[in-house]
Write a structure and sequence with these properties.
The structure is a homodimer. With about 350 residues, chain A is of the alpha/beta class. Chain A starts with a strand and ends with a helix. In chain A, helix 4 packs across helix 5 (about 185-195) and helix 4 (about 160-170) crosses helix 10. The first copy, chain A, contains 12 helices and 17 strands. The radius of gyration of chain A is 20 Å and the shape is globular. Chain A has helices at about 40-50, 100, 150-155, 160-170, 185-195, 210-220, 230-235, 255, 280-285, 295-310, 325-330, 345-349, and strands at about 1-10, 15-25, 30-40, 65-70, 85, 90, 115, 135-140, 145, 180, 200-205, 220-225, 240-245, 260-265, 290, 315-320, 340-345.
């Protein structure tokens, strides 16, 4: 065990402050990573504030981790000292159940271990995330980062990137498909970039006309203002796929009206109760609505490689660790384009 | 044009009474059918009572029609006088749009013509359904009835049968799959029979323990009482497919918890707003909810042929036309096992 510096919250109303946490010794299959950057995900804030219940304190958030390998265990074969690597939302799973065997560790029947607030099998207690100097993770859950990408802008790919890439791939979005991305935040901006890189005709769907220009800069071919009933009618029954990144309760019926026969809208943002869905919104046109949760480790590596090939990264604003509490307020107010990333050098200084 | 006897309602509060309606002359592609039996669908009642709005009076309901061909047009090739035939929920569509060309007439972009309450292209006004002596329908919308089946028990296949067969087939239910049928009414009882005939392991899911015995008689391997939280927990994440036939507003979240990863629940009953769905119910396990509406004409013929091969018909209670108003009360009170069928001879007498 070694003590490392981290930033954590002691209870749901507390600001994040510097604390010391323990990291395990490097075991045979482990990779020890000196963290260089860590993205700020809205889930971090929900966990710090115990919005979903079940938070264990101190909470040390962070599951968009980039860093350099500083030590590897005896049985590690894919990584060596000096490699640039990433860690996303999971640091462990049972590896034996059907979902694990099928590269869907996020749905592990025995419970995947979250990068923070998960059950720490090694030290007991709960896991601590990436708002820290160092982390030790089993090799299977460590990702390779393409060398051509800007490492700080890669961090959000580990959560926002895979969360949007996975459904686009799983529902087989093809070149030329008309894809709608609903909501322009951390997830939505990655959805636009990734769908565009896949060759789709991307329509940004938003309540807010002032987001139009930015959406086009990010790769949207068109912007559809969802409050404009005429425009919504014009696009009715025309979308091959919709990626719904809206993170709060909302009415999905107007979006279902946009889908072609047999087409699907995938929810990746809202994990809370939605406004009542009409059965008829699905029945007329044999439409579908589905959910998707991050992605498995294999697919996360595929996503990173895809981003390397297509030069896709997140739009980020880099902050010092000491400014995290202000950053949280700005995330809550949707005042970030489009992801904060913490320069972890600021914690070490 | 010829006048025929029918039963219709003059306004939303009126009982059904005998009235005279007009049927068109037989055109080149038309088949004239002397109706022998007509099933009673809950939609008939909704339309008579204008529950969904848009009812045109007089309403002559009935879209589960069985009868004998008595005359065919010059260009009719598939039917001849004396054939036993059926007519379901549609009597026309544009035949030119993509859905029509892909055998999905129910989703015709120019609007399929309902067997009743649709726009009558020939006589003007609106279409009149099967609660009548006679109907004239274009050949494409006329179905062949397998000779080995009891014709009166076939009538409900034209709506309840295809409504449940189509999603079971479209979502590719296979032998050995664990299929849940939610709700035991007209649709649910056909869902059980059809899924059983496809070789699925069928679980009847109902709020009502007293339906258990009947469900097993119909072909269910097991009955799951949805109010029994322990039992629901035992079946969590275990279903390959769910067919939801509940016709009213309800909470779908407990059913979504029953689905395996990537599995789908298809709604065929409720066309109204449901209780709020939780985004998390879909996101955890990449689950799906979809809708399905009757089926195209080609698939309806396939369903009838399948029922012929597997000797599947509806459980019916045969009534005289004169008893229709009492029957409606019993349908509304779920007091029928499982479909009323009108013996149309009673109208002719």
């Amino acid at each position: 065990m070694s003590q490392v510096k981290a930033y954590g919250a002691q209870d749901k109303d507390a600001d994040l402050k510097q604390i010391d946490i323990e990291r395990r010794e490097v075991k045979d299959k482990d990779v020890k990573i000196q963290i260089t950057y860590c993205g700020v995900c809205h889930s971090d804030i929900h966990t710090v504030r115990n919005d979903w219940g079940g938070s264990k304190y101190p909470v040390v958030p962070g599951h968009e981790i980039i860093g350099k390998v500083v030590e590897v265990g005896n049985q590690v074969s894919n990584f060596k000292e000096g490699d640039l690597v990433g860690v996303g939302c999971m640091v462990d799973s049972c590896r034996e159940c059907d979902p694990c065997k099928n590269d869907l560790e996020q749905f592990c029947e025995n419970g995947m271990v979250g990068t923070y607030n998960g059950k720490d099998k090694h030290l007991g207690g709960h896991t601590f995330g990436g708002y820290s100097e160092m982390i030790v993770v089993e090799e299977h859950f460590v990702l390779s980062i393409p060398k051509n990408l800007d490492e700080k802008a890669v961090a959000p790919l580990l959560c926002a990137g895979i969360t949007t890439y996975s459904p686009l791939r799983h529902w087989n979005v093809q070149e030329g498909d008309k894809v709608g991305v609903i909501g322009l935040g951390g997830l939505g901006h990655m959805g636009i970039k990734l769908a565009h890189a896949m060759g789709a005709k991307v329509v940004m769907i938003t309540t807010s006309p002032k987001k139009a220009e930015d959406a086009k800069r990010l790769g949207a071919d068109e912007v559809l203002i969802s409050k404009d009933e005429e425009a919504m009618k014009k696009h009715a029954n025309s979308f091959d796929f919709l990626l719904n990144t809206v993170p709060v309760k909302h009415d999905i019926n107007p979006y279902l009206a946009l889908l072609k026969i047999d087409a699907t809208m995938v929810m990746v943002g809202a994990i809370e109760p939605l406004e009542p869905m009409h059965g008829g919104s699905l029945i007329m046109g044999r439409k579908r609505v589905a959910g998707s949760l991050i992605g498995g480790i294999k697919e996360t590596q595929e996503m990173l490689d895809f981003c390397g090939e297509h030069n896709v990264v997140s739009d980020v604003e880099v902050i010092d660790m000491q400014n995290i509490n202000d950053a949280y307020e700005r995330v809550v107010n949707s005042d970030v384009k489009y992801r904060f990333v913490i320069d972890m050098e600021s914690l070490r200084n």
